[in-house]
Backbone:
């Protein structure tokens, strides 16, 4: 049966955060809030949990996952960043941006774009997500919680429980966290390029 935690959005209960991390470490699949919308997440490299996400979302092997990181130091472990990248990421993290970088050897091959060898990374500005990442000590492999056939992510944790009971291991009710997706920025070209305009200040990338 799916567990359901109500975690305070500003002062997350340490006990519940530790329990959520234990579920992730045991191969669990967790729904948790971010600064843009709710997400499905699991431990990095957990092939079984990743396949469960694909079944829920009804996506194929080409679906791009995102690594949700604690900070710039953690990002640099999984993504190749230069001085230009570092300055931009420092200015925009934490925040509602997903950055596409060349992946390092620390990223499992099945998480990369099959041809470009890239990975999406981001640092969310959400207290619950930050607490989970700090307690876990590594990124959470994630994707937005959008059900097949829907255009917008789910926002109501009780609806999530009705739809996904026994398909996920934990639902974290962290209150309303929005509908607007992150802005996606490709960082592998001569200059940063927005490929999906979403939440955040997109004028920062205008030429």
Residues:
């Amino acid at each position: 049966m799916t567990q359901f935690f109500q975690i305070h959005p500003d002062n997350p209960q340490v006990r519940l955060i530790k329990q959520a991390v234990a579920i992730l470490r045991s191969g669990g699949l967790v729904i948790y809030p971010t600064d843009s919308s709710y997400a499905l997440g699991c431990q990095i490299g957990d092939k079984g949990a990743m396949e469960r996400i694909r079944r829920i979302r009804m996506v194929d092997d080409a679906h791009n996952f995102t690594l949700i990181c604690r900070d710039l130091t953690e990002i640099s472990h999984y993504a190749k960043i230069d001085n230009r990248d570092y300055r931009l990421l420092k200015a925009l993290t934490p925040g509602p941006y997903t950055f596409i970088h060349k992946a390092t050897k620390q990223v499992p091959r099945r998480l990369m774009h099959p041809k470009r060898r890239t990975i999406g990374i981001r640092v969310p500005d959400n207290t619950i997500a930050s607490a989970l990442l700090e307690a876990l000590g590594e990124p959470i492999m994630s994707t937005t919680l959008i059900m097949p056939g829907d255009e917008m992510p789910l926002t109501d944790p009780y609806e999530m429980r009705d739809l996904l009971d026994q398909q996920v291991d934990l639902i974290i009710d962290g209150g309303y966290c929005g509908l607007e997706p992150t802005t996606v920025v490709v960082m592998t070209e001569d200059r940063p390029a927005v490929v999906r305009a979403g939440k955040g200040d997109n004028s920062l990338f205008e030429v």
Notes: The first helix runs from residue 14 to 25. The mean pLDDT is 90. Residues 3-201 form a domain with the DHBP synthase fold (CATH 3.90.870.10).
